[in-house]
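Shipment paperwork, digital attachment
Item: protein structure file
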Amino acid sequence: MIAIKSEHEIAIMREANQIVAEVLVTLAGMVAPGVSTGALDEEAARLIRAYGAKPSFLGYLGYPKNTCISVDEQIIHGIPGKRKLMEGQIVSIDVGVKHHGYYGDAAVTVACGKIDETRQRLMDATDLALSRAIAAAKHGNYLSDVSRAVQTTCEAAGFSVVRSFVGHGIGTAMHEEPQVPNFVTREKGPMLKTGMVIAIEPMVNVGTYDVRVLKDGWTAVTADGKPSAHFEHSVVVREAGGEILSATPKLVWGRRTN
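Attachment content:
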């Protein structure tokens, strides 16, 4: 069953997601050659607790860190540690918090220094796909409209969307119904209704959409070793399109117009 949130619940979730957004702003600003992924994670933990929230990833199904930081060919669930970032890489930062019993979740991919044209096009296409998916998250549409917006945008740019991982509903649990694929299936999925809250998160690869998981049991990487980008917002279904709960003017993503 897909929960419809009240405006009171949405207000709390907006607070949670604004904490996520502020953390992402800070971490994105720290990305530079020589910075370790572990340093980013430590700063995230400090900030989340300073805001009075809890890092929701830490301990989830045994996950050992506060954030997921995935570099280049790593798609999602990269475990922060001693690895130092290098010029030319792209870095996906995924942050989740629990705040007053509700969850916030968002992710952004940023460049480490100067990146090549392929990585920039990948990031641009993934960001645009998220924007179009958010616009499709309106009352009366079907979940497949959101999925189609991602898939058509990314495939038109020559990239592939990951099939093995999807977005999700979010609320009093980090993962709720419905699952939100970034590709069209045979089913239209449920009709979207005002007050549904979903985490839309395109995961897009330069090459094949096939993935493999490393021996750590968490880090998902592209099967061909080519780069991947990941953008995510927590979004409320509204009459005119999705309302982004994790939006911030300090770091703009998921709001491209073309």
